[in-house]
Amino acid sequence: MSPRCRTSLPLLCFLALLTLVAPGAQARSTARPAARDSGRDLDAVLRRVPDPAHGREVFRVCTVCHGAHEAGLPRGWVPEIAGQHVRVIAKQLVDFRHGRRWDLRMEIVASRHVLKSSKDIADVASYAASLRPLPPNAVGAGEDVRRGQELYGMRCVACHGRGGEGSNTRFVPRLAGQDYDYLLRQLHDAIDGRRPGLSATHAKLLKRLDAADLEGLADYLSRLHAQGGTS
Question: How far is 114 from 146, CA to CA, in rounded Å?
């Protein structure tokens, strides 16, 4: 199997979908996060037995952005999801559905207009998790990697693991080898309160870091292999 499923729905179909359901998705972005509803939805997803074949079909929608390096979106907007923990992917999709994460494109995809059931989420999350991650994506300038390593050891390793491997059982994402620009954007979003599904601990641990610290942390993680080494 290739590192990713390269087939995708025509981009025009996806853009038409954005036009049809964008108003509702925008309303979800500004709504108060519904933790109780998202918890029920997530439980329903996790009870499902995934169907890889169906997951591959559902993943066609995802390949418009996640299936190619040149997705036509600004740098930092598209994470590497191949090989991410299945429970992490499932939780993020449910969070987007319930306004606990904010991104118009993902809110549309996670809505019941596209992922119509808990089965769809379970299947596509399982399929994406089964894919082999591509080699390390874009990394930073390399000037603050050592500082980033120190900060990671002090503030992040307890939850995200020594090698940035995360945890499937605890819904902790794998950060090792993630795209530098995406990591940096998420760090700023956590500090600025644009990730309502995150615990307050993240903002507390990050808020005293300056721009160079955040860039170093993102750069270190982008170069980190799950086994614990850096490229």
Answer: 43
Could you give all domains of the chain from N- to C-terminal order, each with its CATH number? 11-130 (1.10.760.10), 145-222 (1.10.760.10)
- The tens digit of pLDDT for each residue in 95-148 reads 999 999 999 999 999 998 899 999 999 999 999 999 988 766 689 999 999 999
Q: Is 73 in contact with 154 (CB distance < 8 Å)? A: no
Return the SS3 of 184. helix
DSSP 198-226: S-HHHHHHHTT--HHHHHHHHHHHHTB-T
DSSP for 41-55 reads: HHHHHHTS---HHHH
Task: State which amino acid sits at residue 224.
Answer: L
CB 203 within 8 A of CB 172: no
CA angle, 40 as apex, 58 and 21 as ends, to 5°?
45
**Residue that the structure tokens 């606990």 belong to:** 100
